[in-house]
Design brief:
This protein is α+β, with helices and mostly antiparallel strands. The protein contains 4 helices and 3 strands; from the N terminus they run E-H-H-H-E-E-H. The mean pLDDT is 91.
Length: 73
């Protein structure tokens, strides 16, 4: 089985984050930006703002995912 691994930048855009979290594959939402907005509001998704644009630090997002999965145990 050939699995291609995509690399992501240290600071991801919202679209890159949507791909990284595989939202199109796991969500029934038609507007994926709404899913990200919900995660920011309700789950404290880590982000920084540069020039009024949200960017998502890869390492912080990875740590956030680990924390989210450990709360479901």
């Amino acid at each position: 089985m050939n699995i291609e691994t995509k690399t992501y930048p240290d600071l991801m855009t919202e679209q890159e984050l949507i791909e990284y979290l595989r939202i199109p594959e796991v969500s029934k939402a038609t507007k994926y930006k709404n899913v990200i907005s919900h995660l920011k509001r309700m789950r404290d998704l880590p982000r920084i703002h540069l020039c009024s644009k949200a960017l998502y630090p890869l390492k912080a997002v990875q740590e956030w995912v680990n924390r989210q999965t450990s709360t479901w145990k």
